[in-house]
Amino acid sequence: MIKIIYFLIACNTCDLEKMYFNFDPTKYENCTEQADVIREQISSYYSSTDVKDQGWYTPNGKLVIGYRCE
Predict the structure, then answer these.
(1) C-alpha to C-alpha distance for 63 and 17, rounded to whole angstroms
(2) What is the domain extent for residue 46?
(3) pLDDT digits over 53-63, tens only?
(4) Pick from 18, 27, 26: nearest CA to 70
(5) DSSP strand E in the chain: where?
């Protein structure tokens, strides 16, 4: 079974946090398509401000670094 693993970070000195999701080939053509949907479900995009860099952030402030399909 293919897994989609998202990587999150809470601070510069924190370890990466991983979130695991199962790839559903009955709903999506490929892993990237589903990963984009997941990113939009778990985070929101913010433009750069004086207190926060641009990027996709979870509701509790963790920065989404990226994902991997394996």
Answers:
(1) 10
(2) 3-69
(3) 999 999 999 99
(4) 18
(5) 3-9, 17-22, 44-46, 55-57, 63-69
41 secondary structure, DSSP code: H
Tokens matching residue 48:
């750069």
Residue reference for tokens 């990027």: 55
Which candidate, 14, 1, 22, 27, places its Cα nearest to that of 65? 14
pTM of this structure: 0.86
CA distance 55 to 7: 13
SS3 letters for 7-39?
EEECCCCCCCEEEEEECCCCCCCCHHHHHHHHH
CB 29 within 8 A of CB 48: no
Cβ proximity of 11 and 17 under 8 Å: no
- Paired with 66 in beta bridges are 7
